Amino acid sequence: QTVLQGIILLPLRVICIVFILLLAWLSASIATCCQPGRGFLPLKGWRRRMIQTTLSSLTRMAYFVMGFQVKVKGKVASLPEAPIFVAAPHSSFFDAIICALTGMPSIVSRAENLSTPVFGTILGALQPVAVSRQDPDSRKNTVAEITRRALSRGQWPQVI
Fold first, then answer.
1. How much is the pTM?
2. What GO molecular function annotation could you give as one example from this UniProt entry (predicted)?
């Protein structure tokens, strides 16, 4: 009986996850379409709210379809309380759960990830701090950008 359930559930889960991923891509594309100052200015207004609500909900939904149920104990630190949010170790796909639960903050990511089809568009909507592995000054530039965003007095979202 469990094998039969797996044979039926696996394709359904995959179809649901692909559908959710395409909705996330569409939402990210709409929110960043014709964005002034792409990457240099923070998203504001409806664009930021759309990213926060839609992508957060879709990410939670995708993890639920995969069989994960996450409960938050305590209160997530707000932007004024913690402009920089540290999550460690950040080495797996579970990092997206943290992003969804904290309102889709900006993240630090490899610059190459932005050119990945579908995922790159979604990642770009989070306005990441892009780290280039080829640039020898990348570490210094990354620290400067994180500091600039943290000191922006709420103009930029939290950085994780």
1. 0.82
2. lysophosphatidic acid acyltransferase activity
